[in-house]
Amino acid sequence: MKNTIVVGSQWGDEGKAKVIDVLAEHADVVIRFQGGANAGHTVVVGDQEFVFHLIPSAIMRPTKTCVIGNGVVLDPAQLLHEIEELEGRGFDVRGRLWLAENMQIVMPWHVQLDKLKEKAAGKNAIGTTGRGIGPAYVDKVARSGIRLIDLLDPEGLRFKVESILEEKNILFTKVYEAEALQAAPIVAQYLEYGRKLAPLVANAALLLEKAIKTGKHLLFEGAQGTILDVDHGTYPYVTSSNTIAGSACCGSGVGPTAIQSVIGVVKAYTTRVGNGPFPTELDSELGESLRKWGGEYGATTGRARRCGWFDAMVVRKAVRVNGITGLAITKVDVLDQLPEIQVCVGYKSEGKVLEDLPMQMREFENVEPVYETLPGWMSDTSKAVSWADLPENAKKYLERLAELVGAPIAMVSVGPRRDQAIFLP
Ligand code: IMP
């Protein structure tokens, strides 16, 4: 297997966890490189369902090594909860899960600030997951963050928390009229997290270099999706990290020349959670049906996902900014019952055909999607085990999507189980 990056190519929730779980069989090390506990990955193994927010789902394969890289913002309580849950169900993580020592920590003030800002924004809220992600990345870039290595240094941590809170508490009490946070209990709690996590802390970039030099295969697990990227997405309705493939290098300490392929995961239709433009949204009974058939409810917040037709403008952009070498098209079975399927092939704005997604959100909110209608296949695809098993119209639909976005199909997924995956040569 080549060293591969897997990214979401729409607004997240494309089914990356399933694709990564299947590809992980041929990888040695699986690495998370951005985001935090805002991600929610559901994996089905046999009749057991697992939901991960931070740990790469490949941890369930006992021979695999998993790394959470420096680009992630880590909520230690959530991570410890996932470790306990896994160990309680018989999966040993010790010696297989490594955490980059230079990773940023999500602190209680980040979560508090995320919620206060969203509340204050009213109808202009982003619709965040409330996990403190944005404020944690703000502090990283402002150079006032706390890193994992700091949790192993009692003196240093006390000093940092006290000085950070002097400033944050002015914001909480004077601007938001909220309660101030106390340093002492936070320091005690986070030192305790540090003690528990200490055996997993590593120089992850060095570890990955050694893995590459000994011929091990790396699989990078992206979170969220391309159009939630802080630079390339529907700003400000985005997450606070770079979600695109280039971020795998910054967020892990592996150079770009070590990577050979990029898999873009796309849903056979489109969903989005949170606010912001969504040109192909189906605010109708059909949208409700897609939600029901696809089980489109957020794994992190339980929110109902907004559903709509496949948008080739979105995925074409994803192919471009990620350098996608192969598409993994998921949830094809969700469309099984439809007599006709629409695909957005372009946007018009004030009569003009657009070449790309507008960066001005007011313009984006008003674009007119141009649709092409394709016939459905009206039959069950969930038992297909090869491309040949798929109904003719399903093949035509998938081939048309690939043609519109300019990337070949590498994999098709027709259900949540590991064996419901079709690989193309
Ligand atoms: P935040 O990442 O919690 O700051 O949320 C910012 C935006 O990204 C909101 O619209 C969220 O709904 C969205 N978002 C964050 N994580 C995910 C995800 O894993 N899947 C889909 N949307 C997400």
How many beta-strand elements?
20
Small molecules held by this entry:
inosinic acid
Rg measurement, Å: 22 Å
CATH topology value of the largest domain: Adenylosuccinate Synthetase, Chain A, domain 3
Could you walk me through the main structural features you see in this protein, from its secondary elements to its overall organization?
Strand 19 and strand 20 form a beta hairpin. This protein folds into two domains: 312 residues, Adenylosuccinate Synthetase, Chain A, domain 3, CATH 3.90.170; 96 residues, Orthogonal Bundle (Adenylosuccinate Synthetase, subunit A, domain 2), CATH 1.10.300.10. It contains twelve helices and 20 strands. The chain has 425 residues and is α/β, with parallel strands linked by helices. The longest helix is centred in the middle third of the chain and has 22 residues. Helix content is 32%, strand content 20%. The mean pLDDT is 95. The structure holds inosinic acid. Inosinic acid binds next to helix 4.
Supply database-style keywords:
single chain, 425 residues, alpha/beta, Adenylosuccinate Synthetase, Chain A, domain 3, Adenylosuccinate Synthetase, subunit A, domain 2, ten-stranded mixed β-sheet, four-stranded mixed β-sheet, 12 helices, 32% helix, binds inosinic acid
What's a quick, concise take on this entry?
The protein folds into 2 domains: 4-95 and 204-423, Alpha-Beta Complex (Adenylosuccinate Synthetase, Chain A, domain 3), CATH 3.90.170.10; 104-199, Adenylosuccinate Synthetase, subunit A, domain 2 (Orthogonal Bundle). The protein has helices spanning 16-23, 76-88, 108-121, 133-141, 154-175, 183-197, 204-213, 247-250, 285-294, 312-322, 361-365, 392-405, and strands at residues 4-8, 29-32, 41-45, 48-52, 65-68, 73-74, 97-100, 104-105, 201-202, 218-221, 261-267, 270-272, 306-308, 310-311, 326-330, 340-349, 352-353, 368-375, 409-413, 421-423.
